[in-house]
Amino acid sequence: MAKIEKFFARYEEGANTFDPDLMASLYTAEFMAGDPNGVSCGRNDQALCDAFVKRKEFFQQIGFKRAKILHIEATPLDDRYTMAKIHWHMTFEKQIGHPLDFKFFITYFLYDSGTGPKVTFWISHDDEQKVMQQAGIIPSEA
Fold first, then answer.
1. For residue 114, what are the CA distances in angstroms to 3, 42, 108, 111, 118?
2. SS (H, E, C) 9-29
3. Dihedral of the CA atoms 60, 29, 122, 39 (nearest 10)?
4. What predicted TM-score, i.e. pTM, was given to this entire model?
5. 85 Cα distance to chain centroid
6. What is the dihedral of CA 32, 89, 61, 63, to 10 degrees?
7. Helix runs in the chain, H state only
C-alpha cells in the first residue's frame, strides 16, 4: 500500500499546484469520470493539460487555498487494479477572512501496468459544482 500512498501524495501535490505535467502523468491514456450527473470519457492529451491550466485559473478566481487528503482506503482488486476511496478536504477563501471548508468523497480505480499506478476511472460521489454553488463560491447557472 506504500505505492498507493505515494501515488496519492503526488496527486495531492498536483491538486494544489495544478501542474499539468504532473497531473497528466497520473492518468492512463484514456480514462472515465463519473459524478451524480453521469459519466464521461477523457483522453490524456493536450486538451487535458489545458483543462488543468483552466482549472487553476478558475480555482484562483474563487479563492482556492488548499486541497488535502484526509483518508485513503485502498482495496487491491487484483495484481493490476486497486480501488481507492479518498476523503478530500478543500479550503476556499473567496472573501478574505471567511474561509469555507468542503469535504468530498471520491473513489478512484487505479491501473498499474508495472510502472506505477495511474487513474483509469474515478467517481465523485458529490456534485462538487452544486455544493460550491450552494455555498455561494460560484454562481448558480441560470
1. 12, 22, 18, 9, 10
2. HHHHHHHHHCCHHHHHCCEEE
3. 90
4. 0.91
5. 12
6. 180
7. 2-17, 20-24, 46-61, 128-134
The cell 486497486 sits on which residue? 82
For residue 124, count other CB atoms closer than 10 A to its CB. 18
Q: Which pLDDT band, with edges at 50, 70 and 90, does 141 fall under?
A: low
Q: pLDDT tens, 9-57?
A: 999 999 999 999 999 999 999 999 999 999 999 999 999 999 999 999 9
Location of C-alpha cell 474515478: 122
Take residue 73 and report the three cell numbers written for it: 482506503
- Asked if 90 and 102 count as a contact pair (C-beta separation under 8 A), the reply is yes
